[in-house]
Write a structure and sequence with these properties.
Blueprint (H helix, E strand, L loop, with lengths): L1 E14 L2 E6 L2 E7 L6 H13 L3 E2 L5 E3 L7 E6 L21 H16 L4 E3 L7 E15 L4
Parallel strand pairs: 3-6, 6-7
Antiparallel strand pairs: 1-2, 1-3, 1-8, 4-5
Helix pairs in contact: 1-2
Length: 147
């Protein structure tokens, strides 16, 4: 899995002009699923994200997790994280998992996160408009193949 993690003061996702999910302080995730991903990738990513200390404590140190601050997560499926740009000018997306498998793993991943943290999400495969205010800015790339 490849996941872009952004610390946000607010974020929302709209589909066909209607808000499908919105959060205040927390994390906005762009989630890409690869063809080799399995349950161990889901478990690893969920554990890292839920416990990642990227929120400021009273001493202005990044020392608190999304759980510590009572924050929420907005999760957005994002197959384009697997873009191959080596040849030509049009990216190829053959490195992403097939849609049926990716959708299943994305749903399982969201279920893991939702066990611990309030979760909003987009709709897998939909044309979405995402708005966010990146706090910091803090943006982190997590690749479960680099454990």
């Amino acid at each position: 899995m490849k996941i872009i993690i952004q610390r946000v003061s607010q974020a929302s996702v709209s589909i066909d002009g209607k808000i499908a999910g919105a959060i205040n302080q927390g994390l906005m995730l762009l989630v890409g699923v690869g063809p080799e991903d399995d349950q161990s990738d889901l478990d690893y990513a969920a554990r890292k994200i839920l416990n990642m200390r990227i929120f400021l404590d009273t001493d202005d140190k990044m020392n608190l997790s999304v759980q510590d601050i009572g924050g929420s997560i907005l999760s957005i499926s994002q197959f384009t994280l697997y873009a191959d740009t080596k040849k030509g000018n049009r990216p190829a997306f053959t490195g992403a998992a097939k849609p049926d498998r990716a959708s299943q793993l994305y749903d399982q991943f969201n279920a893991l996160l939702a066990e611990t943290c309030p979760l909003e999400k987009g709709i897998f495969g939909a044309d979405m408009q995402v708005s966010l205010i990146n706090d910091g800015p803090v943006t982190i790339v997590l690749d479960t193949k680099n454990k």
